[in-house]
Amino acid sequence: MSNIFTKRLTKELRDLQANPPAGILIDKADDDLKLWRVVMSGAEGTLYQGEQFKLQFKFSNNYPLESPEVIFLDTVPIHPHIYSNGHICLSILYDQWSPALTISSVCLSIQSMLSSATKKERPPDNAMYIMTAKKSPKATTWAFHDDKV
Amino acid sequence: MTDQPAANPLPSQPQELLNEGLRHRAQVSFAEQSATSPTSTTTTTSEAASPSTPAAIPTSPQSASPASASTAKSLDDDANDEPEFMCNICLETASNPIVTLCGHLYCWNCIFYWMTGNSPFRRACPVCKALVEKDKLVPIYGRGRKTDPRLQPVPERPRAEAPPQVVRQGGWDAFRFAGPRANVGGNGAVVVGFGLFPSLFGIQMTVGGMGGTRQAMNPAQQQAFVSRAFMMVWGYLPD
A100 and B126 in contact by Cβ < 8 A? Predict the structure, then answer.
């Protein structure tokens, strides 16, 4: 499987560097391709316009059969589905993951999630969650109930 | 419906007559369709106009040649970037290609590894989430390729042994007890066995043991089953 892992991530990296989607930039990717940093800019005309965020992608050997671990680093956007420890409540990052998704499509999903926010606020259970959450958001059992944002 | 090809006493050319009849019938049904729906009348006119279209065809490529050449070139560029028959999982040209019933292409290895995961979400097509079943995948054979990739499968990963189920009270367990007891206990045990059979039926009907169809047995089936079960218990009894 690691063969697929290397081939696919190499290809994705090449594609992203050749023609990156608007507002998405590969900051760095480790030599073994297991850890990526992506800089994401808030889309024009949204609450996050002009802001820049750093996303970290961690890939297991089973990528793309298993989802990458995706969190925000440093400045975490204030959003009803993003916890202040950088964890993102987004179904495709957990049980709705599909190997047909790519880093590019995940980035676009997160960007679209940011763009559809109507109010900058933390999730209502933020304080509770960041006390109990493990380091990896994949260790959390997520419940997805809000399709609007 | 005015023709009578079959009733003709001396058909000189029966095949031709039959064809004539079929054609006529087709026309009749077509006329019926056009009577009911106004759209099909337009198809008759377009069909009538179709002989003129071949004459129009040679002119069109000349007029559209610059545009079509440029699109063809851009398509070629795309094809250079990405293989046309790309596996949706590894993003390479699919090897041992398999297509799902929903039309999505994968390498057999890739979709196999996806489908054999533990999560129920991994029974879904990665592209469209339609249910994917191993037996309903369609292998694609290029020229000279005749082996079904599913017959030379990727090495099966070792599967976890299912641990024994937690023992539940009543139901099946009560029935399992009836066997040994009938063996040991003699005549009295037959009564015990009988007493437990109704509960067995209850399980069969509610849990759906009968071939997966969740239908209750009709009385005749029940009768047959009872008598068969009775014979089985009878067979266990020491003479």
Answer: yes
Tokens describing residue B158: 């070792």
Q: With respect to residue B73, please indicate whether it lies within any of the assigned structural domains.
A: no
Q: Which helix (H) or strand (E) element contains residue B107?
A: strand B105-107
| Mean pLDDT for chain B overall | 61
Q: Which two tokens stand for residue B97?
A: 């290609």
- DSSP label of B122: G
Average pLDDT for chain A:
92
- Region A131-140: mean pLDDT is 92
> From the centroid of its chain, how far is CA B15?
39
Question: Would you place residue A109 in the very low, low, confident or very high pLDDT band (cuts 50, 70, 90)?
Answer: very high
Separation CA A80–CA A121 (nearest Å): 5
ipTM of the complex: 0.87
Q: Could you give the angle at which helices B219-236 and B187-203 cross, rounded to 10 degrees?
A: 150
pLDDT tens digits, B73-92: 444 444 456 678 999 999 99
- Higher local confidence (pLDDT), B57 or B227: B227
Of A11, A96, A100, the CB nearest to B89: A100
Q: Which residues of chain B make contact with A9, given a CB cutoff of 8 A?
A: none
Q: Would you give the distance in Å from CA A116 to the centre of its chain?
A: 16
d(CA B193, nearest CA chain A) in Å: 47
Topology of the domain covering A2-139:
Ubiquitin Conjugating Enzyme (3.10.110)
The domain spans of chain A are 2-139
Neighbours of B93 (CB within 10 A): 14
Helix, coil or strand: residue A46: coil
Tally the domains of chain B: 3
- Domain extent for B216: 172-236
Does any domain span residue B162?
Answer: no
d(CA B66, CA A68): 45
